[in-house]
């Protein structure tokens, strides 16, 4: 099994040196199609374009070839976290405060493992969710969260509109 914490410790400084922030490092696909996924974003805009992905991919390919931290063959995937991004760092819960998220716990709490509500931020190691169906507001320990992600809403779409749409209507053909 691949140690993603060690991979993150190896990868993050390289990504940050390029001016990006690592959102998540994960291995997917098991033994049939292993993929090392690196989600990143521009530290200044929280967005990531294809050119950014290419730049990070080149840097990480060289690093990973040299360090060889994964014992088997795998595919490297560098991507943006997307609009319905995972919430992986404590700061994400503050940065996306006011938006709707789905949070799944490692173990059930009050008979539930999954909660949907509006993010109220993080305080003292706990995430506040408001407008949770039948519960109102709940406080969930960060350490108890298995995974969390933003849910697609009109407010989220408006908040994550691209900084520039230049070229979005063109298809570039390379020959």
UniProtKB/TrEMBL annotation:
Residues 87-153 form the Ribosome maturation factor RimP C-terminal domain. The keyword Nucleotide-binding does not apply. Residues 10-84 form the Ribosome maturation factor RimP N-terminal domain. GO terms for cellular component: cytosol. HAMAP family: RimP. Belongs to the RimP family. PANTHER family: RIBOSOME MATURATION FACTOR RIMP. This is Ribosome maturation factor RimP.
